[in-house]
Amino acid sequence: MKGNGSALLNASQPSPGGGEGARPQPSWRGPTLACSLIFTMVVDIVGNLLVILSVYGNKKLRNAGNMFVVSLAVADLVVAVYPYPLVLTSIFNNGWNLGYLHCQISAFLMGLSVISSVFNITGIAINRYCYICHSLKYDKLYSDKNSLCYVFLIWILTLVAIMPNL
């Protein structure tokens, strides 16, 4: 069987001949993926902005535990604002044609978001555990200053965790 070698190309490089020889895709695939991604982007942006605005707009919600929730919302917004629109463009163009740099930035931001989401959810779980099981020490452990430091640490650890992928 004769191969054209296009399987060896980087995904960010256009295939020779403008994608000739690629397997034909079902006609419903592009519109279905695009609609799903548009819906995801809208819900992601609106929902996370509502979370952030709710916490900052309501003094009762400004507490240590919600600092982690806001950080998680920011991590989710990072993906909805840059990589998702680029993926959507690729769906409409039937392949990635935005170049190597955008591919790398998009991959970095997706990785950053996933890792920081995991770390933020872990931070939320630890915060809730301390609130329930160590309620007498909670106010000292999770003062506003300490909680801000924990969120900052989460983002530093996220950057450290993603560095090997650069």
Tags for this model:
elongated; Rhopdopsin 7-helix transmembrane proteins; single chain; 166 residues; mainly alpha
Shape: elongated
Low-confidence stretches: 5-11
- Treating each run of at least 4 consecutive H or I residues as one helix, how many helices? 6
CATH topology, which one?
A: Rhopdopsin 7-helix transmembrane proteins
Radius of gyration: 21 Å
Please outline what is shown here:
With 166 residues, this protein is mainly alpha-helical.
Describe this structure in words.
- The chain contains six helices and no strands.
- It is mainly α and 166 residues long.
- The chain has one domain: Rhodopsin 7-helix transmembrane proteins (Rhopdopsin 7-helix transmembrane proteins, Up-down Bundle), CATH 1.20.1070.
- The longest helix is centred in the C-terminal third of the chain and has 35 residues, at 99-133.
- The protein is elongated, with a radius of gyration of 21 Å.
- The model is unreliable at 5-11 (pLDDT under 50).
- It is a multi-pass membrane protein.
Please specify the SSE layout and strand pairing.
Elements: H1 29-57, H2 64-81, H3 83-92, H4 99-133, H5 135-141, H6 144-162
